[in-house]
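Support case: user asked for a sample of complex input and structure output to validate their parser. Sending the pair below.
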Amino acid sequence: MKHQVNLDYTIAEGGLKPYFDALEKSDVLASKCLGCGRITFPARIICGACGSGDVDWTALTGVADVVHRTDGATRSFALMKFAGADTLTTVALLNPRSCATTGRLKRHVDGLPGLWVELDEITEGNDHV
Amino acid sequence: MINDVWVAGGAMSPFNRRKDGSSFRDWARAVVKEALDDAGLEASDIDALIVASESDFFTLQLNPAALLADECGLTGVAAKRVEGGGASGHVAVQAGVAYIASGLARRVMVLGMEPSASHLAGVDVGALYALSFDAWTDGMTGVDSTSFYAMSALAYMARTGARHDDFARIAVRNRAHAQHNPTAHLPLDISLADVVSSPVVASPYHRLDCSPLSDGAAAVILAREADLPKLTRPRSRFRATAGATDTVRLGERADPGFFSGKHLCATRAYKMADVTPDQIDLAEVYDSYSGAQLQALEALILAPNVLHAERAGGFDADGALPVNLSGGLLGQGAPVGATGVAQILTAARQLEGRYVGKQPAHIPCLALVDTHGGIATLNCVSILEAS
């Protein structure tokens, strides 16, 4: 038998709404633990290091370095270290043909959800070399 | 230590991509009947059914435990469904152990099943599996399981010096073991060159480094010794069954290449069983990807230097610690809800000396079973003992 289900979810972001609202504008909002100081991106409500719920928001530049990168036939992903963050972040690469090891968070041109990075050589004081 | 929870019997269906028109209800019905026969029990002897199924998206059946109780001739039993991602089957076994150890039930049927291969297109299954990670961040970015495991493997390789040929050797060996397993999905005669020349899915992983999507079911019956009929054949029992989690997001781990949740889980299991890792005689570990087997063995502390032991043949059938003689997920296959149940059944039958398939060089006394969901995010480790 054949059966098809099309599901259209509307998901409330709850306590992470500021993080998702920032992403809509290509802004990078991390969480900063006021207990141990750990900065986490993507943001979280409870500190993953010390368990403190005393967490505030902090803006990052959006610039990130590739730590590990995997390439498939059509898509590439990377674990990247965003400047200012203490954790790594899993991202999809917008321009996987680039071999650059730095990049910047960007919205997907089609507005796809998730975290996307455009690779480019980025150096301090001269964002796009 | 757990001292009176026994594997009374069990059964598993072939793991493969079904093309014969049979359904998960058929596989479940068959393995329940075979498990009852194997244990020397009747359906009326069972007082609880615990069903393992990862996702309703695969079966398109909510409340599957009630349905399968009905389908399998177990109407009237207490029933529940449990889930823990890729570890769903093992989590269900743990729930069954808890039922027996606590006295909540006398004889529990643990039934794992999943139509992971034939109900949906592979691309749709992949999209669902992506939700096994943090769905709001990683899942919606569209990161697939292979890419996640690949990034974890890259971190492991950078730390340990492991190479892709170390992974490929496991892909070859587990498929070779599967050739002795009549229920295996991928009993392949392949070479290292075949693995390397298979298409890259997510570097460093090639297609033959990946476990398949499988259909299938497996069942085990658990009980106290006093609640089982006298049989002439040996039985096996649980000495320990432990769980532990790691952070869901790979990037939040101190070392994305180290399965620290699995390490914690194993440490708990060894303590519960009152054994040391060097006492383990045989292991069935969660090799969703070839490199993940090495990462698992490291976390399970099953050799002082896992990479050295792997290169020296220490995990071969005639090595110091035979691993995945069933073929593991790479060879036997992975119908998610059934996977952990089948791993437990395999270990029990090896201990009981009645396993049909690749045998270890020496008769084992203690076997370790390791299963996880996510990237070793939700972990289960059990240690079983021959009677």
